Amino acid sequence: MPSRILLERVAQFQQRKFGSMNVMEWRRTMKLNGFSCMLYLSTVFLHLSLLSTDSRPKADVDKLAQLFDMPLGSPEHRDLESTAFMGGPLISVRYWLGRLLNCNLFRASDAEVSAVLVQYFSDIGCERGAELGSDQDAWGSIANFLHYQWQTSSGMSSTKTSKWGSAFYAVLSDPDLTVAEIAQYAETTEKQVARMSDVKWLKQLWKFRNTKRDQIVP
What's the pTM? Predict the structure, then answer.
């Protein structure tokens, strides 16, 4: 667990360097001081990743929202795109889901993002497993899928294989599918599916949710 001293130093660095400046102002300041937007984002993401969901500084969230609204080809937005993963699932899910839906989710609460995510899964034919979108334990794996969805829908080469994408989609469409059924859907082998950690994690979370639900039912 990070020390309080580290948290305080990160917060002091942000306040000292950027204060309440807008995007263009603090970008000019960073250039003058030899800083890059990438370095700023790394610092912000470190800060956000060390804080609980309900205590994220509004100033940081607002600046990320401003960056998201910048033109896609701008250096500011490109820096956000390339560093979103540093902020963890709470940031990367907002970024890639926002790109897919063309909406800014950085000022939305986690509950609001969850609702949008569940609806997105339902819209792409994954009603059965859509509720996994409301489980933040699944967001790390879901962020990878959203990134994959954006890359393939944009005609870009993906960092994940099409078999991975098909297997992940299969689990979302029906989390109760067996490994053999997932492999058949993805046109791959059971051995390959067993190596897909994101797919395995979703199935484990689904099993845990069902077990917990069964324990609650009288």
Answer: 0.74
